Amino acid sequence: MGILKDRFKAKSDAMAAEIKEMIKENGNKKIGEVTLSQIYQGMRGMTGLVTETSLLDAKEGIRFRGYSIPDLQKKLPKALKGDEPLPEGLFYLMLIGELPSEEDVHHITSLLQRRSHVPNHVFAAIEALPLSTHPMTQFVVAIMALQTESQFAKKYAEGMNKKDYWEAVFDDAMDLIARLPRVAAYIYRRKYKFGDHIHPNGLLDWAGNFAHMLGYEDETFKELMRLYMTIHADHEGGNVSAHATHLVGSALADPYLCFAAGMNGLAGPLHGLANQEVIKWILEMRNELKTELPSKEQIAEYVQRTLQAGKVVPGYGHAVLRKTDPRFSAQMEFGKKHMPDDPIVQTVWNVYDTVPPILQSLGKIKNPWPNVDAHSGALLVHYGLVEYEFYTVLFGVSRALGVMASLCWDRALGFPLERPKSVTTELVKAWLQGKDEIWGD
Ligand code: CMX
């Protein structure tokens, strides 16, 4: 086995033994109660999953193995002359649970380079789709085409011992992460750059090479990709993309099938598609108002019109967070450092000054603050990546790091099939009248 696999095996064996003991001693202890509104309203606040890679605090934001985004920016290894963390380092942290050394990160970069070959039939599957196909649909089709390469699926068909599941999942996870930038860049260049594809550069890090294959050679764009790939990677386990990946994996579907499921969820406008919706909304506002830099008064009026039309203000609100998303703040810092005078970036900041009090005044929105998607598009537009329908694919490439690390843990810890109980409203009504009970299993 390789160094990374050996370390993961040692960590996960120890954790599996600890959890077994913990369940034996404490398995009947109760964690909270479930209310009727929770089962009707998206299970908000209901603890029901274990995800080792990161933890979301409503007031503080995300921590990856205990480290906040500013911590990661300080403590994770960086590219030569770079300031932003290398996402390979975050992957190591999520998988192993410890900060990586420079050498560990180089090891992951070269592992990913070695595994990055994409078979021709994957490109053929993408080419079979009309050019007008949404990039997220092309992405999911490509992931499904890659599934022919699954080690887990092959070994399971041959009759694998359940003790070996984790290793086949680990191999698939690494292969998938390695191949995604090439697939995503292919979709981008096919759809928006007349199929003028760019070969990978084996000397670059994972995110730097992704930027290169997309066709953006500016060093600060590469830095943006390193930051972007780091901050979008994981947001604990209950969000739609992470939960869908985990749920499908619980049926022992291979990592390609699981990741495709997660990406179908990410493509929803209340989740990852919000990043395209934000920039679309800003561009429409600028067009309608015929100005590059709308005033705060104009923005406030446009927000009211959006709400009156029965739409959400994209990029604002969150199911768990109750403050400005630190992923938004990290991107704002990047904007202040590299492009403080860009009108679209300034518009994002003016929207930030304007929207929260308006949403707050409605009285029903639990979190009036911006989430990660409120900022990302403006930074990309600055570098000329204006094709906003592609933005969720970038999010998806990054999200692979978190959900694949988690899937390795799921199989290493032997998590079973996920199968919560559902009820009918008929049963709920009978239960409210004391005529029936809500069965526990
Ligand atoms: N604009 C207008 N209304 C909003 C709103 C927003 N940004 N955020 C929440 N609301 C509304 C809800 O639609 C809901 O309205 P109804 O009661 O009429 O149905 C009400 O406020 C209460 O919602 P909530 O409890 O505060 O929020 P939820 O946990 O139900 O939803 C989220 C969270 C993210 C889906 C929601 O805030 C939203 O739709 N935001 C805009 C889309 C967005 O930015 N999504 C990206 C999230 C981050 C990500 O996953 O990438």
Q: How would you portray this structure in words?
A:
The protein is mainly alpha-helical and 441 residues long. It has 2 domains: 1-17 and 47-269 and 390-425 and 436-441, Orthogonal Bundle (Citrate Synthase, domain 1); 274-382, Cytochrome P450-Terp, domain 2 (Cytochrome p450-Terp, domain 2), CATH 1.10.230.10. It has helices at 3-26, 36-40, 69-75, 87-96, 102-114, 120-127, 135-146, 151-158, 165-192, 206-214, 219-231, 240-250, 255-266, 274-289, 296-308, 326-338, 343-362, 373-382, 391-412, 425-432; strands at residues 54-57, 61-64. A two-stranded antiparallel ribbon has the order 1-2. A hairpin with a 3-residue loop joins β1 and β2 (61-64). It is globular. The protein starts with a helix and ends in a 9-residue tail after the last helix.
What is shown here, in short?
A two-stranded antiparallel sheet has the order 1-2.
Q: What is the CATH fold-level name of the largest domain?
A: Citrate Synthase, domain 1
How much helical structure, as a percent, in the residues? 55-70%
Average pLDDT, rounded to a whole number, is: 97
Question: In order across it, which strands form the biggest sheet?
Answer: 1-2
Q: In total, how many beta strands? A: 2
Which CATH architecture of the largest domain is right? Answer: Orthogonal Bundle
Q: What is the SS-derived class?
A: mainly alpha
CATH superfamily of the largest domain, please?
Citrate Synthase, domain 1
Number of helices: 20
Per CATH, the class of the largest domain reads Mainly Alpha
User: What number of domains?
Assistant: 2
Radius of gyration: 22 Å
Q: Which residues form runs of ≥5 with pLDDT under 50?
A: none
